[in-house]
Amino acid sequence: MRLEDRVAIITGAGRGIGRAIAEGYAREGARVAVADLDAATAEDAAAAIRAAGGEAIAVTMDVTNEEAVDDGVQRVIDTWGRLDIAVANAGVQHIEALDKLSLAEWRKVTAVHLDGAFLLTRAALRRMYQGGGGTLLYMGSVHSMEASPLKAPYVAAKHGLLGLCRAVAKEGAEHGVRSHIICPGFVRTPLVEKQIPEQARELGLSEEEVVRNVMLKNTVDGEFTTVEDISRLAVDLAAFPSAALTGQSVIVSHGWHMG
Ligand code: NAD
């Protein structure tokens, strides 16, 4: 097992990509904190990991709430005495043209991605600097590298995470902290299922056309990336043994974007 004795917290892990990462880490021997805004899905994901023989707790927290994130990370440290891996994965999407977008929606999307990643980073680093190091992973996107219409706050926030990841790699190095950003193409989770009809409406296309001609148009094979693909990569990045690999963005998108 490649992550034995490690302790990890993953935000937005009640479902989708985050849940698959939590399950993948647990299979590799890590003790995992499943953090999510939604208490029921976090409990469910943690229970499933325990039922499969792993070690997991559920931590209910809103990543945009400073006190909640500090308390949540502290609970993980109180439970297992350490923190080795933190994955800033929680995210939301909002489909709307820029000229119609309200400041409130802009702030909602950017806060979950950017404020949320910052708060997790700060809480994790405070512990990792005492404990001899660790790994921070950020859930970026192909939208950390390029833009699509109707997703301005998401695109801006995902580009911002690239900068945060690189800043952590520079500052964290002397404390043994490494960081990476995973940049998936489209993965068929609830976040994507919700935007298929929304994009169809905004673009005047059928849902099938949105999938084929918008989402997967530039892939090499017309395939969705899967949660298992992302989970496997998150294990590899967390298990890599040295700072030869730090500050990197890894694009997992069936060739949609080649960085
Ligand atoms: P999802 O909607 O299935 O899951 C997101 C999870 O985040 C949910 O469990 C939700 O409750 C949680 N969450 C939302 N706001 C939160 C908050 N304020 N505090 C704590 N938890 C919160 O989405 P997903 O597709 O699994 O996305 C996970 C990450 O991957 C996101 O950052 C997303 O931007 C990114 N991503 C997804 C895709 C894709 O195609 N699905 C592609 C690239 C990047």
What characteristics describe this protein?
binds nicotinamide-adenine-dinucleotide; Rossmann fold; 15% strand; 259 residues; alpha/beta; globular
Task: Write up this protein.
There is one protein chain. This protein has 259 residues and is α/β, with parallel strands linked by helices. The chain has a single domain (7-185, 227-252), classed as NAD(P)-binding Rossmann-like Domain (Rossmann fold). It has eight helices and seven strands. A seven-stranded parallel β-sheet has the order 3-2-1-4-5-6-7, with helices on both faces. Helix 3 (66-80) packs parallel to helix 4 (103-131) and helix 6 (190-203) packs across helix 7 (207-215). The protein is globular. The two termini are 31 Å apart. Residues 11-12, 14-18, 36-38, 41, 62-64, 89-92, 112, 116, 139, 141, 184, 186-187, 189-192 line the site of nicotinamide-adenine-dinucleotide. Nicotinamide-adenine-dinucleotide binds at residues 11-12, 14-18, 36-38, 41, 62-64, 89-92, 112, 116, 139, 141, 184, 186-187, 189-192.
